[in-house]
Structures are given as structure tokens and as C-alpha cells.
Specification:
Elements (H helix, E strand, L loop, with lengths): L3 H7 L5 E2 L2 H10 L3 E6 L8 H15 L3 E6 L3 H4 L14 H18 L8 E5 L1 H4 L4 H7 L6 H6 L1 H8 L6 H4 L1 H16 L1 E7 L3 H15 L4 E5 L27 H9 L3 H11 L4 H13 L5 H15 L1 H15 L8 H10 L2 E5 L6 H8 L5 H9 L3 E3 L2 E2 L16 E6 L3 E8 L1
Parallel strand pairs: 2-3, 2-5, 3-4, 5-6, 7-11
Antiparallel strand pairs: 1-6, 8-9, 8-10, 10-11
Helix pairs in contact: 11-12, 13-16, 13-17, 14-15, 14-16, 16-17, 17-18, 19-20
The structure holds one RNA strand.
Length: 421
RNA sequence: GGGCGAGUACCCAAGUGGCCAACGGGGGCAGACUGUAAAUCUGCUGGCAUACGCCUUCGGGGGUUCGAAUCCCUCCUCGCCCA
């Protein structure tokens, strides 16, 4: 990559930045340390964090040092941005657990095996030892409350009915101190984050300029929103996680396959490591024949491959093909073996198969007997491709390959039942 | 410390003694239409029950009443104002 910054600009991944020319020259001049931080508020990263990780990856591929920061300390305090109420504080034990899990997920996207290429740090390591007095003198002295109050994230909270605690108010100082530490200890000179982080990021840049008289850089990407305005990865319902235990590779694939036409080009630019020219070709082909969903398929493949590996991406694609494009009753036994590993599945004794309501609840496709009955009423469920009703006796439904029942709710939820005797 | 106000289901929010499992909106799920898209229209959205109905729920606890989300007491949490 001759000009990484230009590439990112073309991908619409730069929203705000410090002096653009200085940033460009710094990146072009040689390897730099670049840092992206996320707070371990859950035991898994989600697709919202993926942008940062992919940007780190792009820098790493260009020979720079990626610094992934797990915010063990800031996670204890809570970022006031983007919410109207105080966070619930997490305890040490939970944070430890979360950081450990996140490290595994991170390591697949960003190479952490060679410290010169990438490292994972936890800001508790340098934040915990600082005393309150040191912090107030060394960090607090360099920042005016006036500036802090001017930040959008703070302003919003002050005007909200719940207000903001001093704890969360202090968050940006901790993050500023992180950047200072990484600058001193690792020579880090770029910080990145979503545009909602810009205030916090700039605080760090200012702090370093005041204390070290050094000009460091930063940029943010536009907060990813779907064309319907919802915040990606934070859809009210189920989040899409990077941990395969929480969101299977198949489910992750489905999340991206279902991307809206209007969003798919931008998402490819954001998440795919393919060159821009190739993505533009795919986008152009997609405009010609959107119903083929080739762009969505490419996007889904690239993301799953990045997060879980090529093998998982292919397996997830095969499972999806079986469920959506071909007749499940004609699928081979081997295909079902694979499918069982990709979609939710369960084993049920032959004697327990019969009543559709009980079976639907047992598989989790319905949340309660009432939910199952409502769904059956609305003809939402099918077994082996045939619609079910309350009278369907699953015991007499012919099992595929002698042992499988493929249950479906709506168009998108599947569950494979293996019947044993 | 004092005064005022608020806490309702996933979220916002109506309801101020029975017609309340609780208006409305959002979100979610499903059906029709489709391309595993969007838009649109329709249905559903506490649990048990085929059903009559029963049970649990309106910040926590206690009370008044035949009957409470609604009235009283108390506690907790939060906001605004005064000190």
C-alpha cells in the first residue's frame, strides 16, 4: 500500500483527524505504533468493535505496529458517551474474565505473536498504581473543566435527566492518560476510534502535546449506521458477537448476508481486506443484479473468514446454501453432519418426539408453550420443508436419513433435531 | 438538612379504586409480497390451560378495602430547587 491514509479515506473510514498532511507523512515515513482501545464490558467483542480491529489489521499489514488496548481500568469507570444513564460498574473478576476472552478473539484478527507487529495491553497495568494525588497533579492539571464540559458526550449527559457522575466525567482523563502512557512506553503516535470517541481521543493528543511537547496523531471513523439509522452491532435485540460460543460462524455469516443493498458497498469497503478496485467491481455487479446477493455473500464470506478462519467461512456458507437454496430433503447425510455443527441443533429421544408444542419449546425455537401455539397458529413453523400446525404429529413425520428433523421458524431460524432411540 | 417531583412490561410512555395482563409509540417475532433486501399491509408480543379460567407483574416491604398500578405508612433509588 503506497498511501494507507488515502486508501482509508477512499473507504470512508476517516471522519475526523488531526492534521491530515502530518498524519499522512508520519504514516508514509515508516513504521508507527497505532492504538485502538475497547472496554471489556462483555466477555466478547461485537461487530461494532470489528471496524477498529480491521483498521489495526490494515496498518499491521502495511508494516506498522498494532496496539490493541483492553480497557480494564476504563471499563471499571464507564464511558459516558452514547448513553443517557450511568453504567453499572463491573467487578475485577468479571473484567479479568472478559479481558481473557477478548484476547483470544482479537488474536485471530490482529497478529499478536510478534510484539514488533502487534501487542495487547491492559490499561489497568499502568492506571492502578497511580495515586489520586499523582493523577490530579500529572493529568488533571493539564486539562480544564471548561474543555471537558464542551465535549459533546459530556454536554448531552449534563442535560439529561439522570446527570453524570464524577466517575464517568473522569473517563476521558483516564483515556488521555492511556495515550500518554502508550506514547512514552511504546512510541505510539496514532490513536483511532469511532467518531463518538473523538472527544476522548483528542484529550489524549492535547495531553501529550502539553506534557511532552510532541505532536501525535489520531483519526476516527464515522460511526457505522445501517441505512435505517440504527447503530450497527447495537441493534436492540441480539447483538452479533465475535465469540463463536455466543454467535456461531453461521449466525455471523447470516448477519452480514442480510445486509441491506444500500449498505453493502460501504460495509465491504469497511470490513473487507480486498482492494478498493475489486470492491467497486463487486458493487457495480450488485447494482446490475441485486437479487443475486453476490455482494452480501462476498461480504459475509470475508468477515467470517477474517474472524473465524477460511474453513469456518466455507462451512457456514455450505450450511446456508443447504438451508436457503436447495431442497433439504434431498441433501446428503454428510451435509447434515456438517449442518449440525453450524446451526442450533439438539438430540431428542424418539419417545419424546411427537407433540409439536413440546418439541418447539425443547429446541428453543419457541420461548413458551403459548409462543409455540401462537406461531403454529400463524403458520410460522415448518418441519422438513412442510408447514406444521398443532395437529402435526412429529413422531410420524419421515426423518431425513432416518434420524433428522429440520425445524424452521419463519425464514431465518433453523434447528436441526437428531432423533435417537 | 428542607421543599417539590419521579420510579409502569425489552425501551419510551398512558393509566390515579373495579370495565387492567394494563392505551399508544418504538423495538422484536410471524404472515402476505419478495431477492435470506427495502418499502407496504396484517397478526402476535407475561406464564399455565384446547377452552371456562387460574397464576404472577406496575421500585421494595407493610397496611386500608369485598376489590389497589391507582389510597395510606415506611424504606430504597433518581431528578429539580432551597440551605
Amino acid at each position: 500500500m503506497t498511501d494507507l491514509i488515502a486508501d482509508l479515506e477512499a473507504r470512508n473510514l476517516i471522519h475526523d483527524s488531526t492534521d491530515r498532511e502530518a498524519l499522512r507523512q508520519s504514516v508514509a515515513a515508516g513504521p508507527v505504533g497505532i492504538y485502538y482501545g475497547c472496554d471489556p464490558t462483555a466477555d466478547s467483542l461485537h461487530v461494532g468493535n470489528l471496524i477498529g480491529l480491521v483498521v489495526l489489521r490494515r496498518f499491521q499489514d502495511a508494516g506498522h505496529q498494532a496496539i490493541a488496548l483492553a480497557g480494564g481500568a476504563t471499563g471499571m469507570v464507564g464511558d459516558p458517551g452514547g448513553r443517557s444513564e450511568e453504567r453499572n460498574l463491573l467487578d475485577q473478576e468479571t473484567l479479568d474474565h472478559n479481558v481473557a476472552r477478548i484476547k483470544g478473539q482479537l488474536g485471530r484478527i490482529v497478529d499478536l505473536s510478534d510484539p514488533a507487529r502487534g501487542i495487547l495491553v491492559d490499561n489497568r497495568d499502568w492506571t492502578e498504581p497511580i495515586t489520586v494525588l499523582e493523577f490530579l497533579r500529572d493529568v488533571g492539571k493539564h486539562v480544564t473543566v471548561n474543555q471537558m464540559l464542551a465535549r459533546e458526550s459530556i454536554k448531552v449527559r449534563i442535560e439529561s435527566e439522570h446527570g453524570i457522575s464524577f466517575t464517568e466525567f473522569s473517563y476521558m482523563l483516564l483515556q488521555a492518560n492511556d495515550y500518554l502512557h502508550l506514547h512514552d512506553a511504546h512510541g505510539c503516535s496514532i490513536q483511532i476510534g469511532g467518531s463518538d470517541q473523538w472527544g476522548n481521543i483528542i484529550s489524549g493528543v492535547d495531553l501529550i502535546r502539553r506534557k511532552r511537547h510532541a505532536a501525535v496523531h489520531a483519526f476516527s471513523w464515522p460511526l457505522l449506521t445501517a441505512s435505517d439509522g440504527s447503530k450497527l452491532g447495537k441493534t436492540t435485540g441480539a447483538r452479533t458477537w465475535l465469540d463463536p460460543e455466543k454467535t456461531s460462524p453461521y449466525a455471523l455469516r447470516q448477519h452480514f448476508v442480510q445486509t441491506a443493498d444500500d449498505d453493502v458497498r460501504q460495509q465491504l469497503l469497511t470490513f473487507s481486506l480486498r482492494p478498493i478496485a475489486e470492491i467497486e467491481e463487486i458493487a457495480a455487479a450488485h447494482l446490475e443484479a441485486p437479487q443475486r446477493r453476490e455482494a452480501q455473500r462476498t461480504l459475509a464470506h470475508d468477515v467470517v473468514s477474517l474472524v473465524h478462519g477460511e474453513g469456518a467461512a466455507v462451512a457456514a456458507a455450505d450450511a446456508a446454501d443447504l438451508l436457503f437454496t436447495s431442497d433439504p430433503t434431498g441433501a446428503s447425510e454428510e451435509a447434515f453432519d456438517v449442518l449440525a455443527g453450524e446451526i442450533p441443533s439438539s438430540r431428542i429421544a424418539a419417545g419424546d418426539v411427537g407433540d409439536p408444542v413440546a418439541t418447539l419449546v425443547a429446541t428453543g425455537l419457541a420461548s413458551s408453550n403459548g409462543d409455540a401455539r401462537r406461531g403454529l397458529d400463524q403458520r410460522a413453523f415448518s418441519v422438513n420443508g412442510a408447514k406444521m400446525d398443532e395437529g402435526t404429529d412429529l413422531a410420524v413425520v419421515e426423518r431425513l436419513h432416518g434420524r433428522y428433523l429440520l425445524l424452521r421458524k419463519g425464514k431465518k431460524s433453523h434447528h436441526l433435531v437428531e432423533v435417537f432411540s
